[in-house]
Amino acid sequence: MTAPNRPDAGRDAGQDAEPPAAAIAAALTELGLSYENPSPGAYLVKLEGQHKLATMTWLIAGAHSLHVEAFFCRGPDENHERLYRFLLERNGRTYGVHFAIDSMGDVYLVGRLPLAAAGPDEIDRILGCVLSYADENFDIALELGFASAIRREWAWRAKNGESLANLRAFARFADPEAAPRGTADPEQTRNTRQ
Q1: Secondary structure class of 187 (helix, strand, coil)
Q2: Alpha-carbon dihedral of residues 185, 187, 190, 192, nearest 10 degrees?
Q3: CATH number of the domain at 20-193, out of 3.90.870.10, 3.30.70.100, 1.10.340.30, 3.30.1460.10?
Q4: Is-above-0.85 flag for pTM?
């Protein structure tokens, strides 16, 4: 039964409603975001950050829901439990998406929303959340899961005169001329910066 005071009273549900895929495309266009549409109902949006330079995010219209998925980082080389615990603790403070792992241990931000959420305001909000969660947690996640590889990369680049620009965020623990290794807990350091 249709509520009598609604403007669509007396019409069949969905009669004039925009198809979900079209609503997503319209919302992305209204937000001024560029996207790819490789298959019907699937949209790939590139979100540019400061720490994680690019977060590729899928918005996929299903039969009843909008699926959101963004690759965060590959499975960690070390400290699996610490990294996964760090991300699980973050899940309690997220909106719309949460950290999850696949069968290979790679980390994603994923979520599922009702198709009614396909409007510009909610898509802006959910993409903002994806970008914030990816960007704010990226450096600490790399430090927890890839510290040894980052130290090796720092040493190789320094020895060969290569740029260290994209490793500067890790100088605190990767640069042998910085503070002694292992003196700072990355999670504690992160918490004092917030």
Answers
A1: helix
A2: -70
A3: 3.30.1460.10
A4: no
